[in-house]
Amino acid sequence: MQKKKLLTLFLSTLYLSAFTFGGGYVIVTLMRKKFVSEYHWIDEDEMLDLIAIAQSSPGAIAVNGAIVVGYKLAGILGIIISVIATIIPPFVVISLLSFCYEAFRTNLIVSLMLEGMQAGVGAVIGAVVYEMAAGIVHENNIFSLFIMFFSFILTYVFNINVVYIILICILIGLIKTFLLKRSVKS
Q1: CA distance linking residue 8 with residue 133, whole number of Å
Q2: Rounded distance, CA 81 to CA 77, Å?
Q3: Which sequence ranges are marked TM in the entry (predicted)?
Q4: Most exposed of 129, 153, 158, 164 (fewest Cβ within 10 Å)?
Q5: Measured between alpha carbons, how far is residue 109 from residues 99, 104, 115 in Å?
Q6: What is the dihedral of CA 96, 87, 13, 50, to 10 degrees?
């Protein structure tokens, strides 16, 4: 049973990585669809938590997502399998493109196709933002709504670097967790 799950994890992350254009935020939606909706390995709330961890960790979000999902599903072996499967497609594509760089650089059709793909990537990123915000709104947690709204205002209105906002949110989360654990003990 474990071997079948590991094989499915490998093939799923390989497939997602091979057919995802536009970076990590695009793969987040597809991972959610695959692991939450199709396989039912992870529930919706847990997936949101895993995505938040992947986004706030340094490095490529696709690899970070593979790490947290792989660990959740199969521990250290799951991490190894999902990361290898995630990095194989970009590695192969970049290696092949490096040999043909000059031909692709000046090809009008390839250039126009890539520009068209940018619109699709924008739409998928918009869908991810909408789904994550809708999840927070449906929770009816005033604290989470405040954090989401406050983070948006700091970024959009005051143009504060997202890194600082993430660090502040980590600090707030740690304080909240500490206070909750403390209140449970007493």
Answers
A1: 30
A2: 6
A3: 73-101, 108-130, 142-175
A4: 158
A5: 19, 9, 10
A6: -140
Cα 102 from Cα 105, distance rounded (Å): 5
Can you give the pLDDT at residue 1? 64
pLDDT at residue 133, as a whole number: 86
The amino acid at residue 72 is: K
Are 164 and 181 contained in the same domain?
yes
- What does the pLDDT read at residue 23? 64
Q: How many domains does the chain have?
A: 2
The reply to whether 33 and 84 lie within a common domain is yes
**Residues 6+ positions from 118 with CB-CB distance below 8 Å:** 22
Condensed to tens digits (0 to 9), the pLDDT of residues 7-57 reads: 999 999 999 988 877 666 777 778 888 888 898 888 888 888 888 888 777
Locate all alpha helices (DSSP H) within 19-141, ordered by sequence. Answer: 24-32, 44-56, 61-99, 101-105, 108-139
Residues 134 and 181 in one domain: no
Token look-up 């504060």 returns 160
Residue 58 in contact with residue 77, Cβ under 8 Å?
no
Look up the pTM and report it.
0.59
Q: How far apart are CA 110 and CA 105, in angstroms?
A: 8
Nearest partner of 18 among 118, 95, 111, 93, judged by Cα: 93
